[in-house]
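hey so i finally got around to running the thing on that chain from the lab meeting. sorry it took forever, my laptop kept dying and i had to restart like 3 times. anyway pasting the input first so we r on the same page abt which one it is
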Amino acid sequence: MSGAISSLRMRIPYRELPPPNITIPPSATTLPGAVAALKEFLTAPAPRNLPNRTAVLTGAGFSVASGLADYRGANGTYRVNKAYLPIFYTDFLNSHATRKRYWARSYVGWTSLQKAHPNVGHHALARLHQLNLVSNVVTQNVDSLHVRAHPLMPTVELHGSLDYVVCTSCRTRSSRAAFQDELTRLNPVWADFLRKAIASGALATEDPAERQRRGGFRMNPDGDVELPDAPYTTFRYPPCQSCLTKPPKLADGSEGRVHVDSDGALSSGSTAGFLKPAVVMFGEDISSDVKQAAATAIDSAGRLLVLGTSLATFSAWRLAKQAKQNGMPVAVVSIGGVRGEDIFISGLDPDQTGSQGIRVEMSTESLLPALVEEISRTAPAGIDHVHESPQTFAPIPGASMIE
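ok and heres what got predicted. didnt touch it at all, straight out
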C-alpha cells in the first residue's frame, strides 16, 4: 500500500511528452473497440484481495470540452506559449508587485472559469457512479467541475479549487466570487477593461488564436490571463479581513503588519494577511491531509481509471504508480503521451481484452458517453447496479461531497 506520505511540492512539469507508443488492447483503436475494452475493465472482478471498486484520476484534458485550456494538448499552454512560466509561491509571498500581477491576470481570467460548466464527460462519470462502476475521483483540476457534476461522489481536489481564496497567514477561506467583487470595486479602470474584453467575445471563444485576435491575450488552465504591456502596478487587492481585525503572529514571533489605504486595498508595507487562490501554486507543498486523502482513494480501490492527463506532475504520477504497485489494473485514456506509460502496461497478457489494463488515445468526451450508452443498453431492465455485489462507497477523509 501507500505507506508514509512524503512531501509533495508542485514543480514545473514536463513541457512535452513523447506520443503514445501502443494501443491496448489493439481492438481499442476504434470507438466501439475502446468502449468494449473499457466496459470489460470496469465490470470484470477486481484482482484477488483488492476491493471491487474503481478510482478515477483526471487532469486538464478532461475539462477541455468545458472550454478550458490544457497544458500539453494541441492548443495547450506549453505548446502555444513556449515561454510560459507560472508564478511561484515564494514570489507570491515575498513580492507585493507579484501579487498585483497575479490578481490582475486572474481578475480577467475568472470570468471564463466562472462560466465553465461540466461537460458530457463529467456527466458520464456521474452516471458511471450511479451504475456502481466508479467509486471516487482524484482530480488535478482546480475548476471544481467534478464537484458540480457529481456532488455525491467523493472527490479529492489534489491541487485545490479556484472557487475559494485562502489567507497565507491565518488560513481562513472565503469565496472567490466575493473576492472578485472586491477587486472590481478597487479597480474601476480594470473593470472597464474586463467589460470591453467580454463585449469583444474574447473571453467566450475556446480558440486561442481567436481569443488573441479579439482581446490580445492568452488564457492559461489555471484562469491566469497574459496581458501584454498591462499596467499591473496600478492593480489593487484587499487583505484578509480576519488578519486586518486581528494581526497574526509571524514565524519569528513578531506581530504581522496589515496596512490598507483609504479604499481598503492592501498597502506595500504589509507583512501578513495575503490572500491567495485556494490552489497549490508552483513551489508550494500539497497539504498532508490532501495527500493522505488521495492515497486513501487509491488504496481503497481495486482498479484505477486515468482520464485526460499526461501524469506529468509528480503528485498525479505517483498515485498511478501507487495503484500499479498495489496490483491494480490501470486504464489510461488520454490524448498524447503519458509520463512513464510503459510502467502501466508492462506485464499484461498480450491476449487480454481490457480487464488487465488499457491504453487508449481518445477524448473522454467521446468515449465516456458512448460507454454509458452501451452499458445502459445492455444492462437488464430496472437494474441500476452492474456489479453482482453492490459496492459500499464509504466517505474518504478529505474528499469533497455535497450532501
